[in-house]
Amino acid sequence: IEKVFDRFLSRDIPVPGKDFCDMSKPFGTPFEEWSIVNCMLPTHYYPSFQNNVYERLTACIAQQLFPSLGMIKDYDQLLNKRPGKGDAIFAWHQDMGYWPGPKALGVEETSTCTFSLAVDDSDIENGCLRYVPGSHNPKVLRVHAPLGKSREDSHALTVQVDETKGDTVRFAPAKRGSITIHDEYVVHGSSGNHCEDRQRRTYVIAYRPREVVEAERKIGFTHSHNDAINWDTFQDGESHRILRERHETK
Which helix (H) or strand (E) holds 77? Predict the structure, then answer.
């Protein structure tokens, strides 16, 4: 896994367009200046990577967690926080902010198992995951806003986390080879990498019910950042879709 991961990072395995980007900076930022290297859909672009041991194990766990839902792989993603990049901040968000909601898909089910494999030791110093515990319980999407002027500028979204209003923040350090699991509604993100001599590589795989994945594909959503159908176009009434619709009608 590590060897293939590094081939993506070095661009030895090519990934087209916006599927190879920096999740903390605008599209078009020179590669040498990137802080969070993001590679979407690695097993799509390098099929030999499919069915690796991590994929097999997480598929089994997802099925155990939701035995009646027919969980299948929805997408995968590689992330690397480069050493000494204090600005390698993955903004607070809920995964559902990036995905089409039930109104857009015509499917009420949203259950998700997202696994993050620590390819390196992950801790507070190099920007481990952090969560807002309990934020998933209402199963409500908070108001998201784009980090850039539009999705043409940057793919990233963010939500407000306010500890003065009851939000608490919990860090989730992970030793190399261990995983974290979260659902589709928990608010999470990560801070920058303040360690000058350590990177933080993470391999993400998400599983969702087959009917959800099929509904996503039916509307043209594959989780590729190159998709024309994406978080700013879903017809589900969420605020960061509505804001674009209002802007375009002015």
Answer: strand 71-81
